[in-house]
Input
Amino acid sequence: MADKRPAKVRRGRPRQAEVARLAGVSQTTVSLVLGGNKQGIVLHPDTRARVLEAARELGYVPDPAARRLAAARNNLLGVFSFTATFPTAVEHSYYPFLVGVEQEAAVRGYDLVLFTGSSSGGAQAGAPGALERVRLADGCLFLGRHIPADELRRLVGHGYPAVHIGRRDELEGLAWVGADYVDASAEVVRHLAGLGHRRIVLVREDDDAPASTDRERGFREALRRGGLAGADPVVRAADPASEITPAWLRERHAEGVTAFVAEETDTGAAWRALLAAVEGAGLDVPADVSLALLGSPPADLAGRPRPTGFDIPRAELGAAAVRALTALLTEGEAESPLVACAFRPGSTTGPAPAR
Output
């Protein structure tokens, strides 16, 4: 005789989790269907039909109190950094971003929540579900040179309002605000060309961060439009300190290179290596070679001669990111603007030496 086990008795109103089990879908899908799919996420008609049929079979009706709670906002904006340690020091390159974020949030009546998931000892941002904590806030700003694309894509795909500070075209659906590194880098090359430089080399780190690729794109476009000759105008260094040496620099200088350009990164590795190589080679700046930096120098090098290059409008980018995020919250959509960078003449460039 078959063993008969007592059936489970459900008490109270059916829950979305039960609808999800019966329909064979995730609870998120149930929430989207029963909530009217205000996020506009594409759902297969059969999936929607299964959810509605399961809800009818179980007698599911929305909890009015829960719906009011879910729709409520607490006027909190999150800020999540993908750097190893959340930047708080004034000299950190992210500090001006945070100043702009704070000022604009205050003007718009929002408080900030700082998430430190990438800090030393904290949960890794790329771990499954690591970004779900940001749902404590109405929406969240993200910043960092490298991002956990899958986790961020999942968060955005579920309709959570998010804006990245820095261009992120590769992540569909993610709003962003960014600096116009392409035009700014091209302007630096045009400045060097105007001083008579015909052989110019860009030193950059060996990765595919959008900020780096944008700088290289502007650099190459300006070379092409200026008709500037030279093989291998871009050097990608995995370890700039060991690759950009005095011997390497003297060799390139002997080949006719009269101007060297480096990109700004969190570490400033390319710029540091270039400065050390020039000094080790015994060359004078700008009499023998000209140097330019696509961005601003690290804070600990502030006492050195001010490099030719451009300044990134970090505070304005932070404020623009808050405006984009509040637009997502209030209007459901936001533009992804590029903010112009200001050219910085500096003192590290001069006329190309006669050959």
Observations:
- The CA atoms of residues 76 and 111 lie 5 Å apart.
